[in-house]
TrEMBL record:
Keywords: Glutamine amidotransferase, Hydrolase, Lyase, Pyridoxal phosphate. GO terms for cellular component: cytosol; glutaminase complex. Its EC number is 4.3.3.6, 3.5.1.2. Pathway: Cofactor biosynthesis; pyridoxal 5'-phosphate biosynthesis. PROSITE patterns: GATASE_TYPE_1 (PS51273), PDXT_SNO_2 (PS51130). PANTHER family: PYRIDOXAL 5'-PHOSPHATE SYNTHASE SUBUNIT SNO, PYRIDOXAL 5'-PHOSPHATE SYNTHASE SUBUNIT SNO1-RELATED. The keyword ATP-binding does not apply. One of its GO terms (biological process) is L-glutamine catabolic process. InterPro entries: Class_I_gatase-like (IPR029062), PdxT/SNO (IPR002161). L-glutamine binds at residues 52-54, 111, 139-140. CDD domains: GATase1_PB. Belongs to the glutaminase PdxT/SNO family. This is Pyridoxal 5'-phosphate synthase subunit PdxT.
Amino acid sequence: MKAGVLAVQGDVSEHAAAIRRAAAAHDEPAAVVEVRESGVLPDCDVLLCPGGESTTISRLIHREGIATEIRDHVTAEKPVLATCAGLIVLSRDAKDDRVETLGLIDATVDRNAFGRQADSFEAPLAVDGLADPFHAVFIRAPLIDAVDEGVEVLASWEDRPVLVRDGPIVGCSFHPELTDDPRVHDLAFFPELEAGV
Ligand code: GLN
């Protein structure tokens, strides 16, 4: 498996390690490449869009011509995991003119919706299809506030969706790369294996 990690801004190395962990658990050899300019993503089987600063990420992917390649990747139904700022950028609308969203996840999100007083917290999260809770780390997390029909909500926190699947894309508000648990990367990149467990 060749995995591209969008690396224009945000936490890249933790995701590269998490992808390798998930792949190793399935005995799947994984090459991880950083996507900083156009021409790299078309050769990748899966894509990871990490957290960071969604205004910056959105500006850079449009400037570098990567935005179109992300659209093509999704049209080809290749898997994507979009976390936090990545989720914001792939959503239909982030209700913020500074973020030019890609409209690939049929959901609207609120940036930094959990508010400053609770801008970072950790919580055990019940996830559809996983036997045990996932220890979720939220950092200035976006809130998914409306999902269209066809978007599957895999986990919610206080009645708010925080993990969704829309076709080949898994989007999450939290940071699954900050624990050793590979199960969210698994859900995104090895869905057929998860279903068979
Ligand atoms: N709220 C941040 C943004 O809008 C995302 C935070 C994160 O990725 N940890 O970009």
